[in-house]
């Protein structure tokens, strides 16, 4: 008996993107399997957040295709793009909550913006999503009254308010203490599995990300340096990947930006 493998929810095919002459992504191809957690990792400035913006249609590739459920985001008109975005959730770095709205209203915002549900149903959905992240009792608080970890969980509740198929996380662990970080990581994994989601996590935290990810993609110099399971990437013999996963100071990624020789800058006649 043959089994049918579902096509990936997200796929990039030969995608190139840059700002002017600065190339950020250089013909990369990758797939994001349905129902799995895919981690995008690599050094700062490697194009990880750019990939998220391409998938969401905020920017468009100069070459290649960015497919969401088989449709090319690059060629979508505004109406189709808007409809596709309703099927996506986004957790921004540091949460990006609306500071003048309560926790309840922050989570209710996408429901009120994208649906015509009555307020009684909006209330029930908001409380269910807050309960899923352990913050149903914080519904009346303002963002200024929340800790960093709590704010991130409220943002996650908002991201899942519309029951999206895809959730994209941009540095969900940045600035969190170890307890909050571990809680956030477990929530990402648990919600992905319980709700049948597909998740893309951009992160620099190796331990937690490798623990929850099914697939890891390492971006470097505009290309994919490694792609596979966490164990496969951790055991990669590629010098750049080895330097990254082991946090080594010396390797292909250098600390110093290219500059003139020290003697040329500080010697006689070198000062400007």
Radius of gyration: 21 Å
Name the strands of the widest sheet in spatial order: 6-7-8-3-9-10
Oligomer: single chain
Number of strands: 10
Helical content band: 25-40%
Largest sheet, described in full?
6 strands, mixed
Alpha carbon gap, first and last residue: 75 Å
Uncertain spans:
none
Strand content: 15-25%
- Indicate the mean pLDDT: 84
Secondary-structure map:
Layout: E1 10-19, E2 22-32, E3 37-41, H1 48-56, E4 63-68, E5 71-72, H2 78-85, E6 88-91, H3 103-114, H4 119-132, H5 148-159, E7 166-170, H6 178-194, E8 198-202, H7 206-212, E9 215-220, E10 223-228, H8 230-234, H9 239-245, H10 262-266
Parallel strand pairs: 3-8, 3-9, 6-7, 7-8
Antiparallel strand pairs: 1-2, 1-4, 4-5, 9-10
Helix pairs in contact: 3-4, 3-5, 4-5, 5-6
What is the compact description of this entry?
The chain has 272 residues and is an alpha/beta fold. 35% of the residues lie in helices and 22% in strands.
